[in-house]
Specification:
Largest sheet of chain B: 6 strands, mixed
Number of strands of chain B: 20
Helix content of chain A: over 70%
CATH class of chain A: Mainly Alpha
CATH architecture of chain A: Orthogonal Bundle
Radius of gyration of chain A: 19 Å
Number of helices of chain B: 18
Number of domains of chain B: 3
Order of helices and strands of chain A: HHHHHHHEEHHHHHHH
Oligomer: heterodimer
Radius of gyration of chain B: 25 Å
Distance between the termini of chain A: 21 Å
Shape of chain A: globular
Structural class of chain A: mainly alpha
Distance between the termini of chain B: 46 Å
Helix content of chain B: 25-40%
Largest interface: A-B, 23 and 29 residues
Strand order of the largest sheet of chain B: 6-7-8-3-9-10
Shape of chain B: globular
CATH architecture of the largest domain in chain B: 3-Layer(aba) Sandwich
Chain lengths: 316, 508
């Protein structure tokens, strides 16, 4: 396996994660208990899902700021729906996904077909969604059913539900990137002009990347509600920057065309793990952001260095 | 026999620019039909319309007597029309197989097709078109340019059931025998081929007829058997413009040399030797992409040469940045072709745009004096014929011609004695052209020197006191003022073979 494939496959971020986890476990042996692992993954899942969604848009060369607004909106909706039990949870999931996909469809339509700049368009939807969230839920609170709060954050056959969800997303990506839709998405990110001349429907592919993103943001908001047993009209705000940091840490290029959803899942998990680790060794939370930023710069530098070496070899 | 494809009165406008204004042509089934024309004659627009990338404003295309209007590449393919583009449309970090089969690389309906099976299908395509040195599993970015060109061609060949469009298909191919074999294979099955190339000997080898375009309109269709190269060239440039109408210019080649290069080489350039004298307007002619762009960018300090020497005012210098190019005595000012992206500050006033070099070189912490700025700018503006009432306008709101004048005024403002102009009149109106010409003549009369490239031959003929022709990274011809004609330049620009023939004729 070449060094380039390693960097592209998300193996690097996997290694970084395991190293940090090993140090964390050495400092804090209780981290290896089933309970803490479950807790760690429950805490990580919402950011992982949000990063997974953003990856679809970033891979085609776009940008999506609506993540914060969509999560706030869906989180508020989940918290005002009073459906109980497993059926209720499935119903709420359906509504959440519908709302997320709707926001994604609006983003996609405006960006892909009306050709409005992605940053401007998604900034607008973010603000609009935040406004609607406040109309739905005035203040943090609301109602989350016991089923969601306990079963969705628990384990099935000793495996935490959150790990199962993350694994399913990784599987979905594994299949998706081998489909025509997945190949075309990566092709557009590499060279939109050449893709068009190759017969790819560029606008449609872009449109659907926003739909995927919206659905994943909704999923993130749904599990966030389950994890915190509450809803908040500003739940999405902390996600805005961390989502992009997680995607970059996973090695996905912001110009598009290079990277993948699985790497972003791991990038997000690494960011949350860092937070836990720094907390456990007693570093003030004021420093957490600094360390996370530093790790991100190092990861981006490393992937840039790999690309540089590869390019150099191609030229000579 | 009815024509396979018939194009009638096809027209296309981009905003105010007319790209095509009435193209008429027809191609028989199984015919290889050339489209010839100067740069900007409308060839690539025609290709884009036929392949569904852009749509026409007027006129019609009929395929087997049925009117079609392809609106995307995929739709054109459904009609059996496929194109190999000049600017190669392959995705770099994907395999050859994926590129050949896009946008439906996987044929699986409910589950993605396995890689092995995709490679297998791509291999069949490669074998069908006699490619045995490229694996369907290799990544396109790892291939040589010639290999990439063949993949682009194979993709078009495999989709072209009615019409195959080849836009400069041999630009990167060292040998045409493979391509011509494939072309003969498809034409034997009744596929028509539209062939665009600036290499006339190739066109004569493979094509039966040629349609000549000029200024976006058809000049006529000829049987290649019955015409010689000179007839074709004069149809391409037009008869009325072939005679010279320029002011007499004294020979400047014995004056002081301001700029000189010795074996200058870079990615595209293979060893350029030239001398630019004071008082001289040195024209550079060439087809697109022969290296002239790199040469000019090197002079402007925007591109680094790999080897060779540049002497400015008899001193060897390296031009590492535009700032350095300006400062090296007697100073080089470069005006790039892309004025929108590389030249102007659209939201500043014209006066500010003109006087920027003055403030950029005199100090970084000085306060800009608005009245001084306007005064300085007015002087330069008058030399390029820019009316002073435009000085307070935001440059973004000026017309293209006036923007160009602003850029030229800025170049004058720098005080440089050497002007390096890349296509200074592209896209500007006739009146502006005249004031630009006047400025250029005035500039060299004052002892400056100009080297300029133009895609319009008539302009080179009119302005140059000497004209160089670049072809494939080399200067292939150096034409003195009294010998410059559009035919001569065009012939030289189509390769050394034509140039030699021309000079032999003169020798006789």
């Amino acid at each position: 396996m070449t060094i380039k494939k390693m960097a592209d496959s998300g193996l690097m971020i996997m290694v970084i994660y395991l190293i940090i986890f090993a140090i964390y476990a050495a400092v804090q042996p209780s981290a290896l208990s089933a309970y803490s692992i479950q807790g760690l993954f429950n805490n990580s899942l919402p950011l992982m899902l949000a990063a997974a969604g953003a990856t679809f848009v970033i891979l085609q060369g776009g940008f999506d700021l609506s993540v914060a607004g969509t999560i706030s909106l869906v989180n508020s909706i989940v918290a005002v729906l009073q459906f109980d039990g497993a059926i209720g949870a499935v119903g709420i999931l359906g509504i959440a996904l519908t709302v997320g996909i709707l926001v994604g469809a609006i983003n996609g339509f405006v960006v892909a077909y009306l050709k409005i700049q992605a940053i401007a368009a998604t900034l607008a939807t973010m603000i609009i969604c935040q406004g609607i969230a406040l109309l739905i839920l005035r203040a943090p609170g609301g109602y989350v059913s016991d089923f969601m709060a306990y079963e969705l954050t628990g384990s099935v056959l000793e495996v935490p539900v959150s790990i199962i969800v993350a694994f399913l997303v990784a599987m979905l990506w594994f299949v998706f990137r081998r489909t025509n839709a997945g190949r075309n998405l990566l092709a557009i990110g590499q060279d939109a002009k050449a893709s068009e001349l190759s017969g790819i429907d560029v606008a449609r592919t872009k449109f659907f990347s926003f739909i995927w993103a919206g659905a994943f943001y909704a999923l993130a908001a749904y599990f966030l509600a389950a994890q915190t047993s509450t809803g908040s009209p500003s739940a999405g705000e902390p996600f805005l920057l961390l989502t992009f940091a997680a995607v970059a840490l996973g090695g996905t290029a912001f110009g598009g065309g290079r990277g993948g959803v699985t790497a972003s899942l791991l990038g997000a998990a690494t960011l949350v793990l860092m937070q836990k680790f720094l907390f456990s060794i007693g570093v003030s939370s004021f420093y957490t952001g600094m360390v996370q930023g530093l790790i991100m710069i190092l990861a981006v530098l490393f992937s840039g260095a790999v690309q540089f070496v590869v390019d150099k070899r191609n030229i000579t | 026999m009815t024509e396979r494809i018939n194009i009638s009165n096809l027209s296309k406008r981009y905003g105010a620019t007319v790209a095509l204004s009435g193209v008429d042509m027809g191609i028989w089934p199984g015919e290889v039909h050339a489209v010839l024309g100067e740069n900007g004659a409308g060839k690539s627009t025609l290709v884009k319309i036929l392949s569904g990338v852009v749509s026409s404003n007027a006129g019609s295309i009929s395929l087997d007597e049925e009117i079609i209007r392809p609106s995307s590449i995929i739709e054109a393919r459904r009609w059996g029309i496929a194109t190999a583009f000049q600017e190669l449309s392959l995705i770099p970090n994907m395999t050859v197989a994926e590129n050949l089969l896009l946008p439906r690389a996987s044929s699986g309906r409910f589950w993605p097709e396995s890689k092995a099976s995709i490679f297998e299908r791509a291999n069949e395509v490669l074998i069908e078109w006699e490619i045995d040195d490229i694996s369907s599993q290799s990544i396109v970015a790892d291939l040589t340019l010639a290999q990439r060109q063949r993949i682009e061609l194979v993709r078009a060949l495999s989709h072209a059931h009615c019409l195959l469009i080849l836009d400069e298909p041999t630009a990167a191919l060292p040998d045409t025998s493979w391509l011509f074999r494939q072309i003969r294979h498809v034409t034997s099955q009744g596929v028509s081929v539209l062939y665009i190339s600036h290499r006339l000997n190739e066109v004569r080898e493979i094509c039966q007829r040629a349609t000549i375009l000029r200024n976006g309109a058809t000049m006529g269709t000829v049987d290649l058997e019955g015409v010689d190269d000179e007839d074709i060239f004069s149809m391409m440039v037009g008869h009325e413009s072939s005679h010279k109408n320029k002011a007499s210019q004294e020979n400047a080649t014995n004056k002081e040399v301001l700029l000189e290069t010795d074996q200058l080489a870079s990615k595209m350039l293979k060893g350029i030797n030239l001398k630019l004298h004071a008082g001289e307007i040195l024209g550079v002619a060439g087809l697109e992409g022969q290296g002239q762009q790199e040469l000019f960018r090197i002079f402007g300090g925007l591109h680094k040469p790999k080897s060779g020497e540049i002497k400015v005012g008899n001193k060897v210098t390296s031009l590492n940045s535009p700032r350095q190019a300006l400062r090296v005595n007697p100073g080089i000012a470069f005006v790039p072709e892309e004025r929108k992206t590389e030249g102007i500050f659209p939201s500043l006033s014209a006066a500010a745009n003109i006087s920027i070099p003055n403030f950029a070189t005199t100090g970084w912490a000085k306060i800009v004096n608005g009245r001084l700025e306007r005064h300085l700018a007015a002087e330069a503006a008058s030399q390029v014929g820019l009316s002073t009432r435009y000085l307070d306008f935001e440059v973004g709101n000026l017309s293209g011609g006036n923007q160009q004048k602003v850029l030229l005024a800025r170049a004058l403002m720098t005080g440089a004695k050497i002007l390096v102009l890349f296509d200074p009149t592209r896209g500007v109106d006739v009146g502006t052209k005249q004031s630009i010409y006047a400025m250029m003549r005035h500039f060299v009369d004052q002892g400056g020197a100009i080297i300029f490239y133009s895609s319009e031959l008539s302009e080179l003929v009119q302005l140059s006191s000497r004209c160089l022709v670049v072809y494939d990274g080399l200067i292939t011809d150096d034409v003195a003022a009294n010998e410059i004609s559009e035919e001569r330049l065009l012939a030289s620009a189509h390769g050394p073979v034509n140039a030699r023939k021309e000079s032999i004729q003169e020798a006789v």
